[in-house]
């Protein structure tokens, strides 16, 4: 159910967040307090901002591992209407997911071997395909998926909490937004700091799940591997179609999103390549064991699908009852779901910086913040996911089907790229590697198609619409940057600076100290100076002309009457006239504006902001050099 | 019940409204469409933007007249717990309100006679009291009251609609905000246009109420002036205390807010003075007749107070049953309640322009917009009332007690001022006039005290806290303007412009066309030119120095290494050094920034906005002349 949010709130809030972050990020002490002291560029490669693989693993794995709790359930749910005779199929479905997991991890390790400095699907595709669009498809798919991960993980975490604590129900959206902001701030502080905060709960959750799996085996050791409640094995239920089976498989595969995080983040490992490979192997083993053990115990205990009680919760009740252990594990699950969003705050900025570095995204994404993270990327990720959360009022069931298609598309592209690489570069054991990757490509391509087909109407079509748009925009951005570079390029040996003819226009509103300063400046720098007075009635114009004469007419005064009380229109008209000046068109028209700077910033609202207005207008519309002379009140 | 709105929404929305209005008001075609073509200043005094009194009356009267429907009820409600024997007292209470109305209107007509160009309590107090603070108290009290009027009228209108149409309940806040925005837009189009839209419903409501009163008399003519259900007359109920009686009276007086609107708006009458006096007399008669007739019929029909059904609604049911007439009148009541807010959009901007003209409020409030109304005042009124609506989620019961104290305070000050004036100026029949006004002053002073005492705990204290703060701020603003004027004043005969020494600093990021243009400009206008390059590492600095030499070093290049990847800090440090330059401190340091202007505005996000940043930073922090050279992409 989508809550009725007035349409302007989400947009407003996202804009405000971006504006706030931007302001915070460029000014002030608040930033220092929140983000910490700035780091020197050379600290980037010092070890204390890098992580040993044992710490990096839980941070990067939260996204993948948080889904083990619901992956098998998502798969078997698709079949549950066929009756209890289908229960045994949770094992083959989960096993096929684990098989896919093994294939993916092997392929990704190949990727890290090929590209030791890291880089996931985008870098691989860029290096191995001529058409840039293939790499862009991979990048766009992953970026979309990152945003979805944040929105879906955070809001589903908050939603589950709210169903335990009904008092939160009306505040789900605000809480989710708050949650994203907290994750953002911790990440803006820098990778190693966020690690300290975020790795512990994930490790705890991993241990909890392994403990549950272990408890299951102990239970089965004591009470038998086939218990009273264990359903029969191997009967093919009536009504089982291939499509249904594929649907179940593709739903179970949603637990595999997040694998690519490690391969994109190789540089944050203190041991780089080797650390990432170790992390992948460890992650594969833990995830595989958890998935298989968990689904096996679900089968042995004959757990059924129940929309109001997750299978994990049911299994915990069988083993531990409604006690402390149950509560602790359920809470850890929720926490990890929220932390899954955090791993994305490493992946998204890294990838977008990579793509932006190639000129396909705004360059601001390449700039490292004070704490050496790609802060702008983090802010964009937070803003987009907050927008999603607000638009869907943190009710994100509708977003889940959009979720896995992007990843599998990127997987396929990466595998294909690696295959091409092995065939080109060769090297030790290249044939095996090529076979591994081409097999991986085939499998993930099939999965992509299965997901796209079975989830098309459920929302996958949205991704298939947005993807080409993003790719198109990216190529347009690159073209723009190329055009600009062409326009700015010059022959350094034969383009000396030239003597330019400048006409200065001083805007005057009366004769007082600011005008005196501005006219002095103009006369000291340019030969052609004109003072311009825009009056709203004849009387004030006459008064100004008299004053100017009294002052001794230091330069020519031109007066213009503005019947509509507007400054901008008569000013524009005047500048247009100057462009066809007697002595030929000047190279530059300089507009000089004396600006009164009050002692306290809030005094600004007591003064007309015409200078700001004129500047904005001029920059937008004309080729005029705008000079602002500040005038401070004497103390 | 106050809805749980996340705290940031109200503030955000109000900020957004102000920003939007400001943007709309200064740029673009949207404005033309919404607001209409700009009007020439000389059109101000042309008759087509002024109103004949018959049209001005309903517009200015909506605030006062809309309250006749609930005034008598508000009074008798305070006594209703004393039992049915109190019912007859609705007549003396209402009669005393009408008496007060007559006194107030007579006094206000005296005010218009004394000040034919208009001006309510503020103008009168300013002219007759030496201490400016008295006038400021009157003005602040009225301004507060105007904002409250908008918030209370609009939200109570919407609230009543929502109780008829429950589907609206969850959207009360958004609807109220929308409502204020619509009123704002219509008013931004100009006075005469808004008249056409808003006078008809008020006239219709007036006619409806007179029709109800007339129907009552016809009914009584046929069925007797004392009917079966008529309660006994004249028994003093047990438990009636003076305080209770005063409370009833002060509650009934809440129907008198809005009287001052006409006297503040004399200039909008085509017949000026005479028109305003006619309007006052007509309004007094209509309101008095309605109040007396209405309360008399309530007594005859023995209507009781019922929190779920207004007395007006009950009386209508007695006369007309649940038919079309009932529906139409109820709807007209709601509509007029919302339109009451509209009259405030004439009063608030006029008053704030008056006060701002004296230097007690930001000067922007004096500027007439394109359509000759005080647009900034309207925008401020809309923003403040939207803030109130959002903070209280359009549940404004809490605001009603704050409501009438301001008005009666302003009344008292105005009467006192007029009394002093008659005693000073004298003139024909001045004694009678002075007696009328001093009597008026005494009465309204007593009412002020009664209201302040009986409603103190109910919220009147908030007004008594805010008032002195506003007055204090106003005097600070005036002091600021005086200081600025002093600082800017100069001896026009003996302060010619002087020759200034200017050092130009050109910020360079590489050697390309923009740099060439900027350096050319700098060399053509100033003698001392320095190019400044801020690099993030040794390597880029070395590359830049080489390029600069290749280019022929047209001026001195200074390179600075920024270890923290910040531009602003090294720039500030450099400028501080320049201020202690070899050749003595220059008069001006000019910072030249070449700014790339993309062809399409949204291309801006593809380029670093460092120039904007530097400009803002410099304006905020240093005495540096900032010059922006635009560089457009060649077509």
UniProtKB/TrEMBL annotation, chains A, B:
<keyword id="KW-0812">Transmembrane</keyword>
<feature type="transmembrane region" description="Helical">
    <location>
        <begin position="133"/>
        <end position="154"/>
    </location>
</feature>
<feature type="transmembrane region" description="Helical">
    <location>
        <begin position="372"/>
        <end position="392"/>
    </location>
</feature>
<feature type="transmembrane region" description="Helical">
    <location>
        <begin position="90"/>
        <end position="113"/>
    </location>
</feature>
<feature type="transmembrane region" description="Helical">
    <location>
        <begin position="198"/>
        <end position="218"/>
    </location>
</feature>
<feature type="transmembrane region" description="Helical">
    <location>
        <begin position="434"/>
        <end position="453"/>
    </location>
</feature>
<feature type="transmembrane region" description="Helical">
    <location>
        <begin position="12"/>
        <end position="30"/>
    </location>
</feature>
<feature type="transmembrane region" description="Helical">
    <location>
        <begin position="319"/>
        <end position="341"/>
    </location>
</feature>
<feature type="transmembrane region" description="Helical">
    <location>
        <begin position="280"/>
        <end position="299"/>
    </location>
</feature>
<dbReference type="InterPro" id="IPR002293">
    <property type="entry name" value="AA/rel_permease1"/>
</dbReference>
<feature type="transmembrane region" description="Helical">
    <location>
        <begin position="398"/>
        <end position="418"/>
    </location>
</feature>
<feature type="transmembrane region" description="Helical">
    <location>
        <begin position="51"/>
        <end position="70"/>
    </location>
</feature>
<keyword id="KW-0472">Membrane</keyword>
<keyword id="KW-1133">Transmembrane helix</keyword>
<dbReference type="InterPro" id="IPR053153">
    <property type="entry name" value="APC_K+_Transporter"/>
</dbReference>
<protein>
    <submittedName>
        <fullName>APC family permease</fullName>
    </submittedName>
</protein>
<dbReference type="Pfam" id="PF13520">
    <property type="entry name" value="AA_permease_2"/>
</dbReference>
<feature type="transmembrane region" description="Helical">
    <location>
        <begin position="459"/>
        <end position="477"/>
    </location>
</feature>
């Amino acid at each position: 159910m989508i809550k009725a949010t007035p349409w302007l709130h989400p947009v407003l809030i996202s804009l405000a967040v971006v504006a706030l972050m931007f302001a915070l990020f460029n000014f002030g002490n608040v930033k220092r307090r929140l983000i910490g002291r700035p780091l020197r560029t050379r600290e980037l490669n010092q070890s204390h901002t890098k992580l040993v693989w044992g710490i990096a693993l839980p941070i990067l794995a939260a996204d993948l591992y948080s889904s083990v709790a619901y992956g098998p359930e998502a798969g078997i749910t698709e079949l549950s209407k066929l009756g209890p005779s289908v229960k045994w199929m949770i094992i083959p479905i989960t096993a096929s997911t684990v098989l896919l997991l093994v294939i993916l991890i092997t392929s990704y390790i190949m990727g890290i071997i090929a590209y030791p400095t890291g880089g996931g699907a985008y870098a691989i595709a860029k290096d191995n395909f001529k058409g840039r669009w293939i790499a862009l498809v991979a990048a766009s798919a992953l970026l979309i998926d990152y945003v979805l991960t944040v929105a879906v993980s955070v809001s589903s975490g908050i939603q589950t909490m709210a169903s335990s604590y009904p008092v939160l129900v009306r505040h789900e959206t605000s809480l989710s937004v708050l949650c994203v902001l907290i994750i953002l701030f911790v990440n803006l502080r820098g990778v190693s700091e966020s690690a300290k905060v975020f790795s512990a709960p994930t490790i705890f959750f991993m241990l909890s799940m392994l403990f549950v799996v272990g408890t299951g085996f102990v239970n089965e050791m004591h009470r038998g591997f086939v218990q009273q409640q264990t359903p029969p094995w191997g009967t093919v239920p009536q009504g089982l179609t291939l499509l249904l089976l594929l649907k179940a498989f593709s739903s179970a595969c949603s637990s595999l999103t997040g694998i690519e995080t490690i391969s994109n983040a190789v540089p944050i490992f203190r041991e780089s390549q080797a650390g990432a490979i170790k992390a992948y192997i460890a992650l594969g083993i833990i995830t595989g064991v958890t998935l298989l053990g968990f689904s096996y115990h679900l089968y042995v205990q004959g757990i059924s699908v129940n929309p109001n009680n997750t299978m994990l919760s049911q299994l915990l009740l069988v083993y531990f009852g409604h006690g402390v252990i149950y509560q602790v594990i359920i809470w850890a699950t929720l926490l990890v779901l929220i932390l899954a969003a955090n791993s994305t705050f490493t992946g998204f900025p890294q990838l977008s910086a990579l793509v932006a570095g190639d000129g396909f995204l705004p360059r601001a994404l390449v700039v490292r913040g004070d704490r050496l993270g790609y802060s702008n990327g983090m802010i964009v990720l937070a803003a987009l996911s907050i927008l999603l959360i607000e638009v869907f009022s943190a009710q994100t069931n509708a977003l889940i089907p959009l979720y896995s298609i992007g990843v599998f598309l990127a997987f396929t592209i990466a595998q294909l790229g690696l295959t091409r690489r092995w065939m080109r570069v060769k090297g030790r054991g290249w044939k095996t590697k090529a076979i591994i990757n081409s097999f991986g490509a085939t499998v993930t391509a099939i999965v992509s198609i299965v997901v796209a087909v079975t989830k098309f109407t459920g929302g996958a079509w949205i991704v298939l619409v947005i993807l080409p748009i993003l790719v198109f925009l990216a190529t347009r951005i690159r073209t723009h940057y190329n055009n600009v570079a062409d326009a700015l390029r010059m022959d350094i040996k034969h383009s000396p600076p030239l003597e330019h003819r400048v006409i200065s226009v001083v805007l005057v509103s009366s004769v007082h100290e600011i005008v005196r300063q501005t006219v002095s400046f103009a006369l000291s720098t340019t030969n052609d100076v004109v003072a311009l007075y825009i009056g709203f009635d004849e009387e004030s114009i006459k008064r100004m002309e008299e004053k100017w004469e009294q002052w001794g007419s230091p330069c020519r005064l031109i007066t213009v009457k503005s019947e509509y009380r507007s400054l901008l229109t008569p000013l524009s008209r005047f500048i247009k006239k100057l462009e066809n000046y007697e002595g030929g068109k000047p190279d530059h028209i300089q507009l000089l504006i004396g600006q009164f700077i009050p002692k306290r910033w809030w005094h600004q609202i007591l003064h007309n902001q015409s200078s700001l207005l004129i500047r904005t207008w001029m920059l937008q519309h004309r080729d005029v050099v705008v000079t602002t002379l500040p005038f401070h009140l004497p103390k």
